[in-house]
Specification:
The structure holds two protein chains of two kinds. Chain A is α/β, with parallel strands linked by helices. Chain A is built from 21 helices and eleven strands. Chain A has a nine-stranded parallel β-sheet, covered by helices on one side. Chain B contains seven helices and eight strands. The chains are: A alpha/beta, B alpha/beta. At the A-B interface, helix 8 and helix 17 of A face strand 1 and strand 2 of B.
């Protein structure tokens, strides 16, 4: 078993090229992705959002809610936003209040929430003193979170993990305490990463609920308290069983950076963190999402969290074969955007999915081609591979058979992270035993096909190589077109997942704020120093 | 002796397979507990063929048993006659109504799944079968997912929709029942219930549930766009015929 410190998270073996890809095409893709990412930065620079501002408060340790359950972080930011003064940054107003009132952050927040204090009505202290105070507070808070992260890596290394692919299993009962039981069953049967699916529509809440939750539809709310409950349970399991189990959640939706901050504080190892998902599938305003994703990814990058990008989702609405180039193109864009947020390649689990209809002749080979292509294009990234979900029906036995072949693709292309499909996912949120059946299938395939990846080659001119080359070529063409018109225009034109979105529309647009010249951003300043060294 | 039994290997053997988890450690208690469950389900000669301890105190059981009763197949007539093809529907609607049927559809409430409504309404359709957008005989307004019932109703009023099609995928804790009931009540309160064909669909929606909630029809998993289109075409034609008779008389 390899230790985390030497190898990095989910570090997979060096991929052996088998597709004879045209290096010129690959370089052209990377170049176009760079141009696209630069365009995104240009379109979002000079902007902040209510969630970005709340993130600073979360990092500074502000939790808790008022008597109506509204988080104090929201109360504070909303009060300033309502006065049109968020363009200076919540960091400015809070640091000023710390200097002027002598209260601590929690005291300031609750006094404001009670209507006893107007942050923007206080006299302004010397600008330099405010800036210094903001930076000191932020540096101390970030250092404390970083120390926790380093402790966690040391623990992960000391206890040890399974070799890749790491089995990524979803739980979603709605009740965090039930999720703990499901997570134990998953760990007992070889699961490596527990991802607690969020409650339906949490991604559209412009706040992170407070406290532990026992009710939720389609999943369990991502809250700081729920993170902590699950983290403690998994750490306890790891201590008893001598194997580290990772925890993952979802940095997506309207609270992307805030959830990243809470995850870092509570010791999450992984996060789903796509740049485009919220725009396409939750109709969140594209500017809002692109500003939010940047900070969320910087936080994940800084604190050593592995992100999973979400290209796999595009195939649920579009045809899997026709849309294959758009997935590859999106991988390049996601990878480039993530890299610009200081995420190292081994922290970027590029997404891919097995969504070709099961009755397609040679669908397995096409899928293997796509999986191998992803591995070769991103050789230092773990790649997170998603099972077929779109085509699953009410027959659990058929689903189980499809999942088993999916597992063979994962093993046969040397993926780092493998999301498990469960036999009943076409019917409902899988039951506790369905996940164990899924894990049994994975164990079987990993054992029976252990060295498959080393044994297999793809013949020149054969279906696999041809499909990979055609997909790459079409992705290059698409990327160059997007680079020409810009990502925002491309999204408006429905290039990803067949879902067009307009830049002035969508949820959360009212939370986008133009930064003033005197905008104070202690968090970005702190994070732009060297990220925490791994191990 | 009338009625039938489940069939596994030969007629009348009544054999069924059941699998479930008991909150018990793996052992004698989980085995006897499972057999008790089988007995209470009306299964005789229960046999536990497999047990897995999922985690401490939870055991997964697979068992076989014989259903000793008999059931009479409950066949309701004319519920869903065989569906027409897209071409047949287009011709049928043109002949019977002489105008396209106006349909508004959405996945309502907090349900983020647009897959069901998209499969039925978007031209891309499902399983090689075009959605209603692809028909000449339908004018389709697909609002997508996470649509409030109020917004759906407002849109229906604005475009004078003939039919409202609602998709519900998430069913945890009966969320779909609440959503569907609310919409039906709102449509009634608006006074357009009798002028509107109200249908719902989703993996866990049945015809029975739909009727119980006050809908005209419900469509479950496996429904093709042509099934929905056929229903709407026939229902609209039937209503037009009734109206013509009453106006004529």
């Amino acid at each position: 078993m390899e230790g985390v410190g030497e190898t990095g998270p989910h570090r997979v073996g060096r991929v052996r090229p088998k597709l004879d890809l045209d290096d010129g095409e690959v370089q052209a893709c990377r170049k176009a992705a760079t141009v696209i990412a630069e365009g995104v930065e240009a379109a979002t620079t000079g902007l902040t959002t209510v969630s970005v501002e709340r993130t600073l408060l979360r990092i500074l340790g502000l939790n808790g809610a008022d008597e109506n359950g509204v988080p104090l972080a929201n109360r504070l930011v909303d009060l300033v936003h309502a006065q049109g003064k968020l363009g200076r940054g919540i960091g400015f107003w809070v640091a000023n209040a710390l200097l002027q009132t002598g209260l601590d952050l929690k005291g300031i927040a609750s006094t404001c929430a009670e209507g006893e204090l107007d942050l923007c009505g206080l006299p302004e202290a010397d600008q330099e003193a405010v800036r210094r105070r903001a930076r000191e507070e932020c540096e101390a808070a970030v250092a404390a979170v970083a120390a926790g992260a380093q402790e966690r890596w040391a623990r992960r290394e000391r206890i040890g993990e399974n070799p890749p692919p790491h089995r990524y299993v979803l739980t979603a009962t709605g009740n965090v305490h039930e999720d703990v039981i499901h997570a134990r069953a998953v760990a007992d049967h070889g699961g490596d990463v527990i991802a607690v699916i969020r409650s339906t529509a949490q991604s559209l809440l412009d706040y992170v609920p407070d406290g532990p939750t026992t009710e939720g539809y389609g999943g369990t709310f991502a809250t700081q308290a729920n993170f902590r409950i699950m983290r403690e349970a998994l750490d306890e399991w790891a201590a008893q069983n001598g194997r580290y189990v990772r925890l993952s959640s979802f940095c997506s939706g309207l609270c992307m950076p805030e959830i990243a901050a809470l995850g870092a504080i509570e010791g999450l190892d992984n996060m789903v963190n796509d740049a485009l998902y919220g725009i396409l599938y939750r109709d969140i305003n594209m500017i809002r999402t692109l500003v939010d994703q940047r900070l969320s990814r910087r936080i994940n990058g800084f604190f050593g969290v592995v992100i999973n990008t979400g290209e796999d989702n595009y195939l649920r609405t579009a045809d899997a074969q026709e849309a294959a180039p758009s997935v590859t193109a999106s991988q390049f864009v996601n990878f480039e955007l993530a890299g610009r947020c200081s995420l190292a390649p081994h922290q970027i689990a590029v997404g891919h999915a097995f969504e070709i209809p099961p009755d397609t002749p040679n669908g397995f080979l096409l899928e293997l081609a796509q999986a191998q292509l992803t591995r070769e294009l991103f050789p230092d990234s773990p790649v997170k591979y998603m099972p077929p979900t779109r085509h699953m029906n009410g027959n659990p036995f058929r689903t189980h058979a499809c999942d088993t072949l999916f597992n063979l693709v994962t093993v046969g292309s040397g993926q780092g992270l493998q999301t498990l499909g469960a036999p009943t996912e076409g019917v409902f949120t899988p039951h506790i035993h369905d996940r164990v059946l899924a894990l049994e299938s994975v164990s079987y395939v990993e054992t029976t096909a252990r060295d498959f990846v080393d044994e297999i080659e793809f013949k020149p001119g054969g279906l696999v190589r041809r499909h990979a080359a055609a997909t790459l070529k079409a992705a290059r063409k698409m990327l160059e077109e997007i680079a020409e018109e810009g990502l925002l225009v491309a999204i408006e034109g429905g290039r990803f997942g067949d879902v067009p979105r307009r830049r002035g529309d969508g949820r959360g647009v009212e939370g986008v704020v133009k930064k003033e010249d005197r905008y104070l951003d202690p968090l970005s300043e702190t994070l732009s120093r060297a990220p925490v060294a791994m191990g | 002796m009338t009625g039938i039994r489940p069939y596994a290997d030969h007629e009348d053997d009544g054999i069924v397979q059941v699998s479930f988890t008991l909150p018990l450690p793996r052992g004698g208690a989980s085995r006897t507990g499972a057999l008790d469950v089988a007995r209470r389900m009306g299964l005789a000669s229960g046999e536990v063929v497999h047990q897995t301890e999922l985690t401490a105190g939870y055991t997964y059981v697979v068992l076989y048993g014989r259903f000793e009763g008999r059931i009479d197949p409950y066949v309701r007539e004319g519920l869903h006659r065989e569906s027409m093809s897209q071409e047949e529907i287009d011709v049928f609607v043109a002949a019977e109504l002489g105008r396209p049927i106006v349909v508004v559809g959405a996945s309502t409430g907090s349900d983020t799944h647009s897959i069901g409504i998209d499969a039925m309404l978007n031209v891309k359709g499902f399983d090689g079968d075009h959605g209603l957008e692809g028909y000449r005989s339908f004018e389709v307004h697909n609002l997508g997912s996470q649509i409030d019932n109020a917004d759906l109703l407002a849109q229906a009023l604005e475009i004078s929709a003939d039919a409202i099609v609602v998709s519900q995928t998430v069913t945890q804790q009966d969320l779909h029942v609440h959503n569907l009931t609310e919409l039906c009540e709102m449509v009634e309160a608006q006074g357009i219930r009798s002028d509107t064909v109200l249908v719902c669909g989703g993996p866990r929606i049945s015809e029975e549930l739909a009727k119980e909630l006050g809908y005209d029809a419900g469509f479950s998993k496996g429904t093709r766009p042509a099934d929905l289109a056929t229903y709407l075409a026939r229902e609209m034609a039937a209503r037009a015929a009734v109206q013509a008779r009453s106006e004529g008389g």
